[in-house]
Amino acid sequence: MGYKIGLKIFRKRLGLSQDEIAEKLDCVKTTYQSWENGRREPPVEIIRKLLILGAKVEELFGIEYNEIHRLIPKCADENFENKILSKIESLEKKLNEIIVSKK
After folding, report:
1. Residue 43 DSSP label
2. Which has more pLDDT, 90 or 37?
3. Distance from CA of residue 50 to its chain's centroid?
4. What's the whole-number average pLDDT of the chain?
5. Which DSSP state fits 15?
6. Chain centroid to CA 48: how far?
7. Would you say the pTM of this structure is higher than 0.90?
8. Domains in the chain, ordered, with CATH?
9. Residue 75: which pLDDT band, with cuts at 50, 70 and 90?
10. What is the pLDDT of residues 2-13, one digit of tens each?
């Protein structure tokens, strides 16, 4: 799904306009629009800022935890869902550690 959907969902959840989120990310509105419209991908530093603002990895990529049920085939191992959720949580933890270490 990618950033195109996730950025807009996150911005709307915060109740911000494109101007307001661009200001929080220290970029111009047209640059932010290019990320939200899918013309360009945001750099790592912007992803870091989005996570600091409260975005979640699955939100930025447009995947919700409840969508995982739909993505997992019925014939999958019973523990498969838990393994996926564990991996997502592990990635979020590692990203947060990276953010903290860069401060």
Report:
1. P
2. 37
3. 8
4. 78
5. T
6. 10
7. no
8. 3-102 (1.10.260.40)
9. very low
10. 566 788 888 888
